[in-house]
Amino acid sequence: MESSNDSLCNSCYKPFTLTDTFCNNCGFPLQGTKEEKDSHIANRTIKEVDLIELQRSVDSACNSLYWIAGFIGLSTIFIFFTAAAEDQFALLIMNVILVGAFLGFGVLSRSKPTTAMISGLSLYVIIQILNLIADPATIFKGIIFKVGIIIYLIKGIKSVLEADKIKKELNIE
Question: What parts of the sequence cross the membrane (predicted)?
Fold first, then answer.
């Protein structure tokens, strides 16, 4: 399977020297048998498909940071009108900061998804712990929703880490 430019890898299309046995970029067996070359390309293709699927999961998980910001924003409106007058301003300021933080994590997730997802999960868990300390009854309010968010963020982190692993195997930046 020779190409017109025999100094480009048939798998990743990066340059190599004619004395190389394997591509320095992707490990393609430049001097290998046809079966070895076909096997390498098939394995790379499978990993690329897996990466596409994982990237969808990562994008969805990153979007959840925006959903959390929206949920906090909507709950802020509800809490603002139902809270005691002396607590309204403090709750408003705190929740506006939280909305800003989750929106910031959402923006950060486009360039650094691992950092954003871990930070978002950490902040969300800290918020729940502080709410529990302040008013233990809050743990049961929306427990299914809270657990769902935590599970979703953990799955997102797993997807991000797996995608990073495959990118490293494929030498994709």
Answer: 65-83, 89-108, 115-133, 139-157
